[in-house]
Amino acid sequence: MAQRIGALGNVALKDGRSVVIRNLRETDWDALATFGQSLPKNDLLYLEDDFSHPELITRLANAAHAENWCQLVATTKTGTIVGYTAAQRMPGWSNHVANIRLIVQPEYRRSGLGMQLAHAIVEEARDMGATKVTVDMLAALNAGQAIFSRLGFAVEGQLARHAIDRDGNLHDIVIMSAFVRV
């Protein structure tokens, strides 16, 4: 499948730093593992996927060219991954829907990187043929909800005590969605 270039490439952040947003490559295993290990324990509590486990990193790196799944990373000039996002089209009767995941390293939050990655992955989901894009997050993640709201997403529902973190605590999930093609 041809990769869209418009939303990818060099990006200047609000704080003057710059990153490159590009497709994840199979050769990114070490950089992605380092990214996962660098995330604070509190972040890992609230992620659906545990980026600190080598098995997950292997699965993500091996899926770099998977059909109906696009993964993007934000890297510094040195190749350090500071952000990850993915869109995966759903199977069956929901194959017009893509679900998004997004995580940014704490040192790059509030720099506009989350918004840049969100915009890029929504464009990629549209290019994969998705007409609806969803994102699930903990209800307490106000910054994440703000990012997707600015992109036209609206809360579609909330599931009470639907997620359990790695410490056994229950959390509400907010489901946001946007139609990206009519």
TrEMBL record:
PANTHER family: ACETYLTRANSFERASE (PTHR43877:SF1), AMINOALKYLPHOSPHONATE N-ACETYLTRANSFERASE-RELATED-RELATED (PTHR43877). InterPro entries: Acyl_CoA_acyltransferase, Bact_Acetyltransf, GNAT_dom. Keywords: Acyltransferase, Transferase. SUPFAM superfamilies: Acyl-CoA N-acyltransferases (Nat) (SSF55729). One of its GO terms (molecular function) is acyltransferase activity, transferring groups other than amino-acyl groups. Residues 19-181 form the N-acetyltransferase domain. This is GNAT family N-acetyltransferase. Pfam families: Acetyltransf_1.
